[in-house]
Amino acid sequence: MSTTSRFNTKNYELVENNDINFRTNTMCSNEKYICVEKLLNCQFFSLNMELINSIKIFTIQGLLISENDNIYVPLNDKFNIYNLKEDLLKSWKLDDNYDKDSRCRNISLYKNENYMVDTSFNRICVFFHEEKLIRSSGDYDMQPGNFVVPWEITIYLDIVFVIDLVNYKIQTFTCYGKLIPEYKFTDSIKYKYYNQR
Question: What is the pLDDT of residue 1?
Fold first, then answer.
């Protein structure tokens, strides 16, 4: 049994605690819903943790719910977009990573593009919402602009931040892929990270 807590972001007071019966490694939210991976399902909850719906999806490698309530789910060999009613809105093929050691495809949306870290292939892929691959960058290498297990991606003010896990750094790029100075983890951060795993 796990507990979720909701806080008021203005004064940090506890608003609500709920006991929930799930364990997950993947979770995301928007202003209305919380979306979690549970076993072989993608489940959607209201903000007070009432189950709204569940979609059976195998091999979930990333999860994101957009402002318009569409669910973005990269899998082993494809990228799917669903609505809350379980309708498959779009799907396109990805390079299959089933036989790879590190399988993670975290995503971030920005303007009309989907940004995805493709951990198995040590790269970043950028798609239009209409499925077209715009660009990809990176390779297995320790040099700036390349990655060894890129794990997480987020975008803020036209800057793309990528956690390059094994290289112990956060790499930053413009939305057009130009590398800007990177942030390296200190030894204390490395120690703390590996001792919490």
Answer: 44
Rounded to two decimals, the pTM is 0.73
Looking at the fold, whether 74 and 13 belong to one and the same domain comes out as yes
pLDDT at site 111? 86
187: confidence class by pLDDT, cuts 50, 70, 90? low
DSSP class of residue 121? Answer: G
Q: How many domains does the chain have?
A: 2
Cα dihedral value 158, 164, 165, 169, nearest 10: -90
Number of C-beta neighbours around residue 76 at 10 A: 18
Domain hosting residue 109, numbered range = 95-197
User: For strand 159-164 and strand 41-46, is the pairing parallel, antiparallel, or unpaired?
Assistant: unpaired
**E strands along 99-158, which residues?**
107-110, 113-118, 123-128, 133-137, 150-156
In the numeric block, the tokens 């120690």 are attached to: 191
